[in-house]
Amino acid sequence: MLxxxxxGLATAINTAKNWNATxxxxxxxxxVPPTDDAIAAGRQVYGEHCRSCHGEKGDGRxxxxxxxxxxxxxxxxxPAMRRRTDGELFWQITRGRLPIPAFADKLSDQERWQVVDxxxxxxxKPSGTSSxxxxxxxxxxxxxxxxCPAPSGCHSF
Length: 157
Ligand code: HEC
Prior knowledge:
The protein is mainly α. It has helices at 2-14, 23-27, 36-49, 51-54, 78-82, 86-95, 109-124, 132-139.
């Protein structure tokens, strides 16, 4: 396939590239709010360009995933997704890194932001079983320390 040839060339150059988004990329603001329309458009893009590797549910278990040298990311991992900014996801999709192709010249900026909106939705809408995420974050909420009983203070350390 033509796409594969092109992607092969692009990714060969990409291999050596550092994939850690720059601070500027992390701060990039998503100009496409996650409206129903944007998410629907993102779903379309995802179905065409991403699902084969990243899977129907965004869990990284697409039909091609087993053939890849690196496992695709898991977009249903809510804590991991929260650590990423939209700008960072956009940047990674734009540049790619073997074996994920660069989408800079395959998708428009608008389409890449829409697909960011869509992949965010995998973690925002946990499917039935994964109610663990909110629970653990609840358990990890900072606990209030008991107040010091001595009136003259307990700050000896
Ligand atoms: C050929 C298979 C393939 C296709 C097609 C593909 N990806 Fe990937 N993707 C991967 C792999 C493999 C990784 C992990 C790369 C790495 O960590 O080096 C990845 C990583 C990512 C990451 C970073 C996730 C993380 O956990 O760091 C994002 C975001 C992403 N892909 C989005 C997309 C989007 C959006 C599309 C479609 C426009 C897409 N990918 C198409 C294979 C693919």
